[in-house]
Amino acid sequence: xxxxxxxxxxxxxxxxxxxxxxxxxxxxxxxxxxxxxxxxxxxxxxxxxxxxxxxxxxxxxxxxxxxxxxxxxxxxxxxxxxxxxxxxxxxxxxxxxxxxxxxxxxxxx
Length: 109
Prior knowledge:
It is built from three helices and two strands. It is α+β, with helices and mostly antiparallel strands. The protein has a two-stranded antiparallel ribbon.
């Protein structure tokens, strides 16, 4: 499962500000002061004028994302504003839904 967290990080980041933005994203991700965390900032990406962004090759390989794969885009809101955007591989999302609904459906049937 791949999680990409947006956390309202500025799109135009000067090179010397990247480390500060990664630290800010790590804090928003709940990593500050924790040893082994599941959530980490993998990279900083930019959004182009068409709204597109590129996931770095290393991250795509690590998450086993290939050309044509489908990703579900979910968002989390805080105080009426989107604070996080999450990408989940569709096949993982299907398995999560089955895992949640399966026991309920078996109980009903």
